[in-house]
Predict the 3D structure of the following.
Amino acid sequence: MMKKAPVPVPVRHVIWFGWKLVFLLFFSLFFFALLRLHFSPDLSSSSSSSSSSNSFSRARARSRISRVNFDGPSKIAFLFLARLHLPLDFLWGSFFENANVANFSIYIHSAPGFVFDESTSRSYFFYDRQLTNSIQVVWGESSMIEAERLLLATALEDPANQRFVLLSDSCVPLYNFSYIYRYLMASSRSFVDSFRDLKDDRYHPKMSPVIPKDKWRKGSQWISLIRSHAELIVDDEVVLPVFKKFCKRRSPLDASKGKLNIKLQKQHNCIPDEHYVSTLFAMSELEGELERRSLTYTLWNQSAGKMDTKAWHPVTFKYADASPKRLKEIKDINHVYYESESRTEWCRTNSTSVPCFLFARKFSRGAAMRLLSEGVVGPFEVSSLLGNSS
């Protein structure tokens, strides 16, 4: 019995089957790419962001090496977060002139490549104090947090640094160095402004379960830390990635865009530096180790206009605002009231009542000069500035 010859498969069927395989492969790759996009911590970061991440990793690795028990004079690490230069360097120069150099250190995060030397600063205390791994910082973005962490990581390399104070380029001291040093060293706690704002809509539901809503906090970014708390921030690899993905600033409103602003207002809005540190400490169950207040005084512009771009921005102190009477009013503040929690934070150190604020912002150059003339930070001859007004 003869076998039947196999029926040949039509060429068009082969071609059609081949195309089906191609389409199946294409859609599989497309679906896989969507999954990667959804679960990536932050694929919107630029190459500069990647570079900053590498810089931070190196700084953090170096800081871990120096975490040893320290026996010697303790230092305060003054961490300046500057846009470029330090416009009030002459005031801070006088402040540090009246201090023991063994009791402080200085670190500056400025624009990448900017160098502090005799051509860019009035005070030699700031020469070459800039970070070599600084990043480009944009207000209202997570780069602000990364810059703060870089400052902390670099300062942690020196085991003598036992207190860490974050300052802006418009901050001024309200007392001389000796008083501030004793104030900070007398307390075993960090000073971190932290409160729950029930009216706050910045929490993104997708932050859960990593960041539970009941751990979401708000507060000033101007903090003062003990060493173990500085290390906690530097070591964080859980909270920051969530912030970078879900806590982003909304595009600013623009009166010229008319109805388009209605669409902009519907976008989720979050300012990372106003939530990160306080939320991290709440998640770490460390709020009991904090004085939940900032040591830096800020006067807020509370304009109610929705289209007013100056609403809820810090007021700048001019020369006339830095009078002895106004400074005394700030120094006499002995408590902070948090309306959203109906909580009064009394300012104490070891059960002793103390002034709430050691620093203030935002001060103009004129206001800073008036502080010098009033002898707030120590003896200084204001006329000496006239010879170097760069």
